[in-house]
Design goal:
The chain has twelve helices and eleven strands. By secondary structure, it is an alpha/beta fold.
């Protein structure tokens, strides 16, 4: 799936085209993967509609992999903010769905397009939206499925798996270690990741390290401390297809609460995820022996500029013990 360009911008349903459902989720990789069950529910609930997802352009391959999205409308804003506008022209969407937040900014962005229906959570700032209540402590996958069920659309939070990539893994059977995360508060110290990687290598395990386009420094420091060869360093932000193949073929994924942990869950790859400052009850993997969520609590500031104290309570031995407890493939 390619994002539409200016010469082929998204419009509402034309005289010859199907009606359209516009879904707003202009967030990151983990957010999109956590929204897969809701997207699939919309696909089933509106079989005659075209599903348009408003999300960052770089997530087009992820949207395509879900099998639930027909078109991607590029939309993004700094952090977790709501985009200022959506590049939509023509007739209004038949249905608009707010999977971005609980409003009112996201509500108003969608209401400005004059959809025939808006599916969204209730908020005092937009009393005209008569949706279900928002529960702050709810798990992300459960939240959006509950929203759709409130509007009569059956949704299953467990419907999160992605198909296995066609491409072969660049490091089959390796343990993937990913030190980065979306905020400093969720970044476990590099030297601790390096201690885990070094211990695994001493046991004869292949370890590879991954990182996003802006995570070159932690990736390089981890690789140097753990003595990883250049062939096992996948920094710079792998294209999604390659990252997906790497994760799908991995022995396990070790990371903080970030997108690659959700990708491991989507591919049923064993994982150890380090939580803090947000609890796994809100963003954790499915309850299954192949997924271990390490969490000591209490919750803290997700926007903190240093690693959260709850995250720092996790030790390299904790991670190695959790890896030892994972089932073999």
């Amino acid at each position: 799936m390619e994002p539409v360009g200016a010469e082929d911008r998204i419009t509402g349903a034309g005289p010859q085209g199907p009606p359209r459902v516009l879904v707003l989720r202009a967030l990151g990789l983990g957010d999109l993967l956590a929204g897969v069950p809701a997207l699939r529910a919309l696909r089933r609930g509106f079989p005659g509609h075209e599903i348009v997802l408003a999300a960052p352009a770089e997530l087009a391959p992820v949207a395509a992999a879900t099998g639930a999205v027909d078109l991607l409308l590029p939309a993004a804003a700094p952090g977790r903010a709501v985009p200022a506008t959506l590049d939509w022209t023509g007739p209004p969407p038949d249905v608009a769905v707010d999977l971005h937040g609980n409003g009112p900014p996201s509500h108003r962005l969608l209401m400005a397009l004059r959809p025939a229906r808006l599916l969204a959570f209730a908020h005092p700032g937009t009393p005209e939206v008569e949706g279900p209540p928002w529960y702050a402590e709810e798990h992300e996958r459960d939240r959006w499925c509950r929203l759709l069920r409130a509007y009569g659309i059956d949704a299953d939070p467990a419907d999160l798996r992605l198909p296995r990539p066609a491409a072969a893994s660049p490091a089959p059977g390796a343990v993937v270690v990913h030190p980065g995360a979306g905020s400093p508060a969720r970044c476990w110290p590099v030297e601790r990741y390096a201690a885990v990687a070094a211990a695994l290598r001493e046991r004869g395990r292949r370890v590879v390290v991954t990182g996003g386009a802006e995570e070159a420094d932690p990736v390089a420091r981890l690789a140097k401390r753990a003595g990883l060869p250049d062939t096992d360093v996948f920094g710079g932000g792998l294209p999604f297809e390659r990252l997906s193949a790497l994760v799908a073929g991995a022995r396990a994924v070790v990371s903080g609460d970030t997108g690659i942990a959700h990708l491991a869950a989507a591919h049923a790859t064993p994982s150890v995820t380090l939580f803090g400052p947000v609890a796994p009850s809100r963003w954790g993997p499915p309850a299954h022996p192949r997924h271990r969520a390490l969490w000591y609590g209490p919750e803290g500031d997700p926007h903190g500029r240093t690693p959260d104290p709850a995250l720092l309570r996790i030790t390299p031995d904790d991670v190695l013990t959790a890896l030892d407890g994972l089932p073999e493939a």
